[in-house]
Amino acid sequence: MDPVTVVSGTMVPLWQADIDTDQIMPKQHLKRIERTGFGEFLFDDWREDRDFVLNDARYAGGNVLVTGPNFGCGSSREHAPWGLQQYGFDAIIAPSFADIFKTNCAKIGLLTVPLEASACEELVAMALEDPAAPVRIDLPEQLVVAGRVLARFDIDGHTKHMLVHGLDPIGLTLEHDDDIQAFEAARPPFMPTTPAPTG
Q1: Residue 73: which pLDDT band, with cuts at 50, 70 and 90?
Q2: What is the gyration radius of the CA atoms in the chain, in angstroms?
Q3: Which pTM value belongs to this model?
Q4: Could you tell me which residues come within 8 angstroms of residue 142 by beta carbon, excluding any fewer than 6 positions away?
Q5: Angle, CA 197 vertex, CA 193 and CA 199 arms, to 5°
Q6: Are the beta carbons of 56 and 109 closer than 8 angstroms?
């Protein structure tokens, strides 16, 4: 996956608590066997409401979702982060996230940014007033800058390392390829070994 360092763009405001993964990616769209093509189904049931924010042309192209606490609760489906990223979101700002959802986002390079509720509400108000209001998220500095908002956020060191260096779990493992090969070479011949990848 691509490294995540700085995310710049505009915000999409969706101030609601406890938005679960079934609302983010409704169950009827989980039958696909590919990991692609989910963006068009994001919030599919809610988009039947013509006033829903994703139906508002003023927010077309917005790449930072600003939303309420406990975002991504419910089932552990990976399709929800896939859909958000494939729709065009590079980051999500919220007061809190469901743990499994947050982990699934990190594995695909979708940045989750926890901020105090008051800061999130200010960002939402800013985006409602001006859909073109810019936002900048600096992951190395762990800083969000938008208008009057200048806020630091916490992220665990392991997740930050993976995102900044563009490492999914497989890439993280391959960083230790030399050690793995040395370990396999030193195993007694009667023990099983992992064959080297082919092709």
Answers
A1: very high
A2: 19
A3: 0.89
A4: 152, 153, 154, 155, 160
A5: 150
A6: no
